[in-house]
Each structure stands twice: as structure tokens, then as C-alpha cells.
Amino acid sequence: NAGVMQNPRHLVRRRGQEARLRCSPMKGHSHVYWYRQLPEEGLKFMVYLQKENIIDESGMPKERFSAEFPKEGPSILRIQQVVRGDSAAYFCASPAGPGANVLTFGAGSRLTVL
Amino acid sequence: AQSVTQLDSQVPVFEEAPVELRCNYSSSVSVYLFWYVQYPNQGLQLLLKYLSGSTLVKGINGFEAEFNKSQTSFHLRKPSVHISDTAEYFCAVSDIDSSASKIIFGSGTRLSIRP
What we know:
The complex is a heterodimer of chains A (114) and B (115).
Chain A: E1 5-7, E2 10-13, E3 19-24, E4 31-37, E5 43-50, E6 53-56, E7 65-68, E8 75-79, E9 88-95, E10 103-105, E11 109-113
Parallel strand pairs in A: 2-11
Antiparallel strand pairs in A: 1-3, 3-8, 4-5, 4-9, 5-6, 7-8, 9-10, 9-11
Chain B: E1 3-5, E2 10-14, E3 19-21, E4 24-26, E5 31-38, E6 44-50, E7 56-58, E8 64-68, E9 73-78, E10 87-95, E11 103-105, E12 109-114
Parallel strand pairs in B: 2-12
Antiparallel strand pairs in B: 1-4, 3-9, 5-6, 5-10, 7-8, 8-9, 10-11, 10-12
């Protein structure tokens, strides 16, 4: 069991470019959560996806951010036209087991916008 | 809506001293409660969780937490800390009612251990 895999671990983008962050949940799991951690802050929920479905996107910024989890392949968090305020660590998590809402987190993707 | 408050953003303690990291939550429904630890440049790891049953929960690395429903608190404690406990600690809450429920995190408490 390889756990939750995220890549890239570090990503540097210039303002206006696009950032794509990928997450593969634990083997056999079909749900992922994305969280954002701004510098010196806690984790903020962004979106919860099941394969081919967005379950809850109440934490997603209204513009420039999107997420998907296709039938095949990893979940992708996409940020268009990045700005400096998007610099943060983005964590993906998948439920560790049924029912209890315990999450297993990936190591995170750290986005730096120059 | 649920919320989690960690009043202390930083807690410095001496090695081998006891520590308590405070967490209060608010919710209109029954909840699950969690403490996660984040070591530098790593993801979050589950320390312990309260789902039901005994209000005193024991976790990894000698940590424990006590669920107090009347005070809506879930404080984390360790009787004797070690340098390796230096990390950021996050309290979290989720709605017991829905399997699709998101987990809400507090803003974190940075524990620094002095030799």
C-alpha cells in the first residue's frame, strides 16, 4: 500500500501561469479531499471528490481553481493564472477506512508563485 | 456550521516537562474529534481520534486527549515531552452524521521543545 501519493512535491510558477497538482489516493480508494495550507495557517478544506463526481466544493475559490477525479488516473487540482497569494502547500487526503472520517494525507505539493 | 479553536498558536516547553495543547470546538450535531501532527515539510499524521465510548483517548507517541462534551473541549496532553515532539499540532472535527462530511481543522499549535 503506497499510501496517498502527490506530485510534484515542489512547483514554482510565475504569475499568470497554470499549476497542476496531482493526487493518487490509496490503492482501491475512490475518494479524495483537497486542502490548502497557507503560510502560518491551518488547513482549509477546498473540495471533496469521488471518481467522476464532485461531492462538495464549498471551499473552492470561485475563480481560477478547478478539480477533477477522472475514472482513470489521479485527481488533479488545477489553478489557472496563478497569483502570489496562491503560494501554499496543497494536501490531498483519502479516507483511511469506512465511516469514521479518518484521513490519510499525502506529503503535499508546495506551490511557489514568483 | 462546525468550527475549531486552538487558542495557543505557539507553546514552548522544556524537555521532559508536561504539556497541554488546548482545543475547543462548536457544533450543532454530534462530532468526531481528531488530533493530527505535522512534522516540518511533511503531511499530517493522525495522533488520535475520539469516535465514541471512553472520553479519554490514547494515541501514538505517548499522547492522550480527553473529550469533554459539556465544555466542548478536546485538549491534548503528554506527561513528558521529548525533542522529537517538536511539530505543529492540529485539532480537527467532523460531523458524525455523514460519510461525505469534510473535516474542519483548527489553525494549529506549534510545539517547540527546549533542551
